[in-house]
Design brief:
The protein is an alpha+beta fold. It is globular and about 60 Å long. The protein folds into 2 domains: 2-23 and 236-440, Enolpyruvate transferase domain (UDP-n-acetylglucosamine1-carboxyvinyl-transferase, Chain); 25-233, Enolpyruvate transferase domain (UDP-n-acetylglucosamine1-carboxyvinyl-transferase, Chain), CATH 3.65.10.10. It is 28% helix and 27% strand. β12 and β13 (218-222) form a beta hairpin. It contains 12 helices and 23 strands. The strands form 6 sheets. The protein has a 4-stranded mixed beta sheet with strand order 21-22-1-23. Strands 2-15-17-16 form a 4-stranded mixed beta sheet. A 4-stranded mixed beta sheet has the order 4-5-3-14, covered by helices on one side. α3 runs parallel beside α5 and α7 runs parallel beside α11 (390-399). The longest helix is centred in the N-terminal third of the chain and has 13 residues, at 25-37. Bound molecules: shikimate-3-phosphate (S3P). The site of shikimate-3-phosphate (S3P) has 11 residues, from α5.
Length: 441
């Protein structure tokens, strides 16, 4: 039986109140990985109970790690040490999760046993050579499909050698994969980034007592150390908060507070870009929680205008472009995004899929090879295909706040990969959204 989900979203007025969006996806994945491989017991609070992070958790259970779940947001990991994993008795199923597959590739390349990793139809179309090429240079043996896509078969018992790798793309997943493989490598492993990407792996490794050196854009670690168990507080995910930040900015009369959101400067492109567009965003109660900075974010409605999005902001807002395109469609004037070809290989081709959806809603949105040109205007209603991409489905839900008629969004089940209670929270904030399930054989 297949379940498909549809969102039916009617135009609504304003967003208000206080929301606490779920835990950060990137941090939750890393907390499971490092906690599983640490010496001792790691406690995670604020864990994202999403399909993607559950896939990572399940993978480690399948490799013999004992994990307790006192409640949905809490995870207790009984770490097995860097050499303590066991061969799983079946291929690891990573669902829709690119982060699980790319980060685990690095860890699995250093194990004594062989592993196969696969996922759903969307993950099976995503490029993996960006990680398998440098891992192979380190001495790993990995088979991919002919086109360099999943499933990946990683042969155990290989000796890895540290490398100096100049990354051709700005990708935190590639950087993290190399650093995690570097834990098992002889000598030093360095990743040199073309521009700054999210640094949760580096922060968390240090939090587990592992030395990571950063000199300019070069991030290095030495193999052969140990991870020491710790406690991790996962802040709310700024990438999930982003939907409500845009929603409150475009819905006149809104005043919304988002609590305890991660504001790591490698993730705050959404705030920087929205502010340049004229958004009214203020940060309250800024503090550090464990290894990460957090704040309560207040957003009041404002009149947005189009901008040329600065290129250096692109990696800092890489997951937020679907909803930023909605902000641009509701803004006055033209918004231009360039230098973002990575958007073409996310959970969907986010440039084509967003342009197609915006055009359906009557907006002039012109896709370019590495970005989009959007002329702000009045959105009408229509039927949108999310192509199974969680962030596309949520972005078009937000579009309803400046649309004249109902927007119907198809293929929304994957919203649960990153934001399991999205429909409830959206309703609480003031969005008129209904979820329709259909079943087919
Ligand atoms: C992630 C990094 C980003 C992001 C993804 C999560 C991570 O991908 O798009 O959703 O947790 O490291 P890239 O680093 O490949 O751009």
């Amino acid at each position: 039986m297949n379940t498909s989900q549809q969102f039916i979203v009617n135009p609504s007025q304003k967003l208000q109140g206080t929301l606490h969006v779920p835990g950060d996806k990137s941090i939750s994945h890393r907390a499971i990985m490092l906690g599983a491989l640490a010496e001792g017991t790691t406690q995670i609070n604020g864990f994202l109970e999403g399909e993607d992070t559950k896939a990572t958790l399940q993978a480690f259970e399948n490799m013999g790690v004992s994990i307790d779940r006192p409640d949905q947001k809490q995870v207790t990991l009984h770490g097995v040490g860097l050499q303590g994993l066991h061969a799983p008795d079946r291929p690891l199923d990573l669902g829709n999760s690119g982060t699980s597959m790319r980060l685990l590739s690095g860890l699995m390349a250093g194990q004594a046993f062989s592993v196969e990793m696969g996922g759903d139809i969307y993950l099976s179309r995503r490029p993996m050579r960006r990680v398998t090429d440098p891992l192979t240079t380190m001495g790993a043996q990995i088979e991919t499909s002919e086109k360099g896509m999943p499933p990946l078969k990683i042969k155990g018992g290989q000796r890895l050698q540290g490398i100096n790798y100049t990354m051709p793309i700005a990708s935190a997943q590639v950087k993290s994969c190399l650093l995690l493989a570097g834990l098992y490598a002889q000598g030093t492993t360095c990743a040199i980034e073309p521009s700054v990407t999210r640094d949760h792996t580096e922060r968390m490794l240090r939090g587990f007592g592992y030395a990571v050196k950063k000199e300019g854009q070069r991030i290095c670690l030495q193999g052969g150390g140990k991870l020491q168990a710790t406690t991790i507080d996962v802040p709310a995910d700024i990438s999930s908060a982003a939907f409500f930040m845009v929603g409150a900015s475009i819905a006149q009369g809104s005043d919304l507070l988002l609590e305890h959101v991660g504001i790591n400067p490698t993730r705050t492109g959404i705030i920087n870009i929205l502010r340049q567009m004229g958004a009214d965003i203020s940060l309250h109660n800024q503090r550090d929680v464990g290894f990460e900075p957090v704040a309560d974010i207040q957003i009041r409605a404002s009149h947005l205008h189009g901008i040329d999005i600065p290129k250096e902001q692109v990696p800092l807002a890489i997951d937020e472009f679907p909803v930023l395109f909605i902000a641009a469609a509701c803004a006055e004037g033209k918004t231009v995004l360039t230098g973002a070809k990575e958007l073409r290989v996310k959970e969907s081709d986010r440039i084509s899929v967003m342009a197609e959806g915006l055009q359906t809603l009557g907006i002039e949105a012109i896709p370019t090879p590495e970005g989009m040109v959007i002329h702000g205007g009045q959105l009408k209603g229509g039927v949108i295909n999310s192509h199974g991409d969680h962030r596309i489905a949520m972005a078009f839900t937000i579009a309803s706040l400046c649309a004249k008629e109902t927007i119907i969004i198809d293929d929304c089940a994957n919203v649960a990969t990153s934001f399991p209670n999205f429909v409830n929270l959206a309703q609480t904030a003031g969005i008129d959204i209904q979820l329709k399930n259909s079943f087919s054989r």
